[in-house]
Amino acid sequence: MGETTFQAEWKKGSAELLILSLVEARPRHGYEISKLIEQRSRGAVRFHVASLYPLLYRLEHRGWLAGRWVEKDGHRRRRYYRLTRAGRKVLASQLRGWSEFVAGINSITEAENA
Amino acid sequence: MRDWKPEILRRLAPLKLSPTREAEIAEEIEQHLDDRYKDLLAEGLSPDSAFRAALDELKNEDLLARNLRTVESELYREPLSPGNASSTLFAGILQDIRYSFRMMRKSPGFAAIALLTLALGIGANTAIFSMMNGLMLHTLPVRDPGSLVQILVHYPGDPEPGFSDFSWDAYQTMRDNNRVLSDLIVGSLNVYEVSAHGVEAQNIFGGNVGETFFEGLGVRPAIGRFIGPQDIATSAPVAVVSWSFWKTRFNLNPDIEGQKIITNDKPLTIIGVAQRGFYGLSNQAQQEIWVPYSLEDPKSSVALSGHLRPGVSAEQARADLAALYQTFVDRPNTNPFFRKNVVRVIAAGNGISTPVSQMLSTPLKVLMATVGLLLLLACANLAGLLLARGASRQHEMAVRVCLGANRARLLRHTLTESLLLSVIGSAAGALLAYLAVGALIQMFSSGRLMVGVPVRFESLRHLDVRVLLFTGAIALVTGLLCGAAPALSPSNTTPASALQSGMKIGETKRQRLFGRSLVATQVALSLVLVSMAGLFVGYLSHLRNDLGFERNNLLLVTLNFDHSNYNAAQYAQRTQELVRQLNAIPGVRSATLSEMSPMEGPGASSFAAAEDHPEKTTPVSINNIAPDYFRTYGTPLLAGRDFSARDEGGSHAAIINESAARDCFGNESPIGRHITLSHITATTGEKTYEVIGVVGDAKYNDLDQPAPPTIYRNLHQEQNLGSQLAIRTKVAAGGVANAVRATEADVLKNVPIAGMIEMNDQVDATIVPQRLFATLSSGFGALGALLAIIGLYGLLAYTVARRTHEIGVRIALGAESADVMRIVVRDAMWMICAGLAIGAPLAFWGKRIAASLIPDLPVANQLPIVIAAAIMIGVGLIAAYLPARRAMRVDPLIALRYE
To answer: Chain A within 8 Å of B58 (Cβ-Cβ)?
Structure first.
């Protein structure tokens, strides 16, 4: 298995989780989201425009995110995405699932390397 | 700043998004790329490499479109902008519907009133129509129902359409000599008490049928055979049962053939089962058993129906059959009743004439017309509301027109709104109709003809495609009617004039006139409904109170002496003892026994001739009564005396009512004179009686007919076993019921009480249609008046709001509050008076139509229309009051600042 394919699959699975958790604390716009993902993963994870926005629209369509144009003085208007009540529930359950998965992986790998 | 747009738009192009959505996405992505570009510049990249790196975010040509395609196809909703010319018809309609929903949410009060109005209008129509459908439009599952007719004889003046009542000889002559029918079928509708081994006795509908009954109706046996010529010839004790009878009573037992059942105390052998789904000649009175017509009983008659030959009209058939019937009644010994009979041929494809159809068909027609008016009223009301609201949105519409909105689209949008209202309203109405039909069925079931008879009123709850189509159609028509007016007005607006702010907005003189004429229409229709309600309520109270006897505090008890061991003399002695003991019960004023009680049903009849005028005979009704009958019923004794115990051995005595006295003796005193009765019901002998008393007229069988000439005979002298006890009480009649039961059981052994009813209920049971008219028409009248109030109030409130500026100017120039009040009230009165002027002739006309259907209706009385007009003026003033008060309180300063 080539590394790129593995990464693509991994990204697809966790992309929703990443985006939802980034807008949990406060609403953010698309570029901010993509930049935060890149920074916090130290460049390991990057979303391009061609995949980020379709994903945002999909989450919005599902009712997990709500997008709104916000105009700030002296700036062009930007579209901010905030987590909806439904999105908050989804995020909680995805986070739970993710921790269990990581714990599971860890217990296997640690046992092997011990 | 770099221009990213062309790159982005090129990639979005294959998606064919709506321009608004495309612009939105492009704007968002453009910003992203711009932010990225600036960050890259800040990191020290050259502008060219930063530009390339940022563009790289879009990846290859088609990735963005590919990723967006699935999302956008689900996500995309065209933004709401009515009037926006759209590419596809369907998308536009969806959009209109969404927009309409949004408008409803924005003004929930308006939506609630509109929906309620429609639900009531459409619900009432659906309810009545579904019953008409069940009663009159549902064809029988028989061969060629279209040409099936019923042959009746009608006695002139009889309220019923007639009876199918012919002798076997008459049947044979008609069958062999007529040139108009392809077949003549013998089949009556009777009630039978049926029991069998392990099957409880039950009253069911059945028929006395001839040999061609099943074949003529195109029915096949499911099991066994049908009644054939040999069964008729030998009066065989056999029966054919329906499939449902087989299922419910015999659990589809395949050995049904040869089983014994007891029908009206006669053992019969089942020879066959009719095919599934066949239930004879009536939808409401579904037959479950058929027995052969018996030649043994010379008095029994046959009921006839048949199929018209192709090309023969009912009238041609009637003429032909009437001529054949005439040869029978011309015979010397015929009962004079029969000579007056006329033959009628009526369509029977929807079922033969039954007590149920006779009771309900006229009321349903009248009610259908009434609810039609109500729906029209609801439409006018809603149209007015939509118009008023449409006018307040005219500025918005004008802006849309100026911005290039498509006028046809705006029109369609308004229509969508009213259609949507009517669709939701009709759904609610259908639910309402379902409940209403249940209530109506309850009311019908209280009717007199129904006691102990298993009428299937549920068949009236006949919800089929026809009813759904009907409801759908009226919803559509209602929606279009209501929507048409407001839909047409915005497109008439000249945008330029509409955009001028201030009081001139919208409303042209024509539109104002239109709004007012809608209100006037409502007032007119309400006047019709309210006056009809008054007419029917007055009629009902007249029927209930002009009886000739006292209906309150009167308990009726029916005795069943079928299984008693008493002979006539013993029975007479025991019943006299019973009456004595009943009189002793505390709370009982008097008690009596008779053969019939008023309104119980038709009793014996006869022809009466006074001793001096034997040639002049008067048809009379007969009742056999014990002493104290008149005192108990509260019918006044006008001359002579009541029966007494000492009459029993003497000469035959009779008491006659005023009508009989007038018809037989003119102005002379009948006391002590003699009267001869002939053809007493089915007998041929004559009997002469001495008249000992004259009593007031009392209704006998029909409340809506004048009291018939009536002869009362002495029950005990006639050796008649009276079965009707009447007990006049000082307290509420129900209060003595238990004591009466106990006394009866004590005095009369083996004579159970078959029924106990208060006179009021017995009276009400005979006037189900009239009660129905009165109840429903009052309800509809009240509803109509309420709708008119809403309409008037809505329009006036809107007008006042519109004229706030003008009113402010008037007040500023010194107008008094009273003057302002007068302006608004005058406005209202104009509309009301116009409505009354239109409505009055309509009400007269409606009354004439109602009178043509209900013979006894007191149409000469104009009071209901006058009262209805007064009510309309009253409610009109109430509706005007609130807007008028608001107008009076207009503050000129605020009003002028309005500008």
So the answer is: yes
CA distance B405 to chain A (A): 26
Q: Pairing between strand B266-274 and B238-241?
A: parallel
A28-32, B591-595, B874-878, range with the lowest pLDDT: B874-878
Q: What are φ and ψ of residue B583, in 5° steps?
A: -60, -25
B58/A60 touch (CB, cutoff 8 Å), yes or no = no
Which residue, B752, B757, B707, is CA-closest to B727? B757
Beta carbons of B31 and A58 less than 8 Å apart = no
Contacts 24+ apart (CB under 8 A), B17-24: B17/B72, B17/B76, B18/B76, B18/B78, B18/B79, B20/B78, B20/B79, B21/B72, B21/B76, B21/B78
Residue B329 has pLDDT above 90, yes or no: no
d(CA B551, CA B389): 54
Phi, psi of B279 (to 5 degrees): -140, 30
Answer whether B64 sits within 8 Å of A49, measured CB to CB. Answer: yes
| 3-class secondary structure per residue, B362-397 | HHHHHHHHHHHHHHHHHHHHHHHHHHHHHHHCHHHH
Considering only alpha carbons, which residue of chain B is nearest residue A67? B28
| Cβ of residue B75 closer than 8 Å to a chain A Cβ | yes
Residue B276, C-beta contacts closer than 8 angstroms, at least 6 positions apart? B222, B243
Residue B453 DSSP one-character state: -
Tokens of B370: 């009434």
Shortest CA distance from B37: residue in chain A: A31
Tokens of B416: 């969508």
Neighbours of B705 (CB within 10 A): 14
* Higher pLDDT pick, B330 / B90: B330
Per-residue H/E/C for B836-875: HHHHHHHHHHHHHHHHHHCCCCCCCCCHHHHHHHHHHHHH
CA torsion, ordered B93, B98, B99, B104, to nearest 10 deg:
130
Nearest C-alpha of chain A: how many angstroms from B524?
53
Q: How far is A113 from chain B (nearest CA, A)?
A: 40
Tally Cβ neighbours within 10 Å of residue B114: 26
Note the pLDDT of residue B366.
82
Q: Which residues of B touch A78 (CB under 8 A)?
A: 31
Asked whether A62 and B71 are in contact (CB, 8 A), the reply is: no
Residue contact A54–B71, C-beta within 8 A: yes
ipTM of the complex: 0.88
The answer on pLDDT for B899 being more than 60 is no
Q: Is B58 close to A49, i.e. CB distance below 8 A?
A: yes
Contacts of B36 in chain A (CB under 8 A): 31
A79 neighbourhood in chain B, CB within 8 Å:
28
Cβ of residue B61 closer than 8 Å to a chain A Cβ? no
Cα–Cα distance between B4 and A14 in angstroms, integer?
30
Tell whether B35 lies on the interface with A, counting CB pairs under 8 A.
yes
The helix/strand/coil state of B634 is: coil
What is chain B's mean pLDDT, rounded?
83
Residue-wise pLDDT tens digits, B831-857: 899 999 999 999 988 888 888 877 777
Residues A37, A46: contact at Cβ < 8 Å? yes
Q: What is the chain B residue with the closest CA to A70?
A: B28
Span A19-28, pLDDT tens digits: 999 999 899 9
CA B313 → CA B303, B308, B898, distances in Å? 21, 7, 73
- Residue B32 Cα, gap to closest chain A Cα (Å): 5
Is residue B206 within 8 Å of B289, Cβ to Cβ? yes
Whole-prediction pTM value?
A: 0.66
Q: Does domain A3-113 match CATH 1.20.1050.10?
A: no
Task: Output the pLDDT for position B503.
Answer: 43
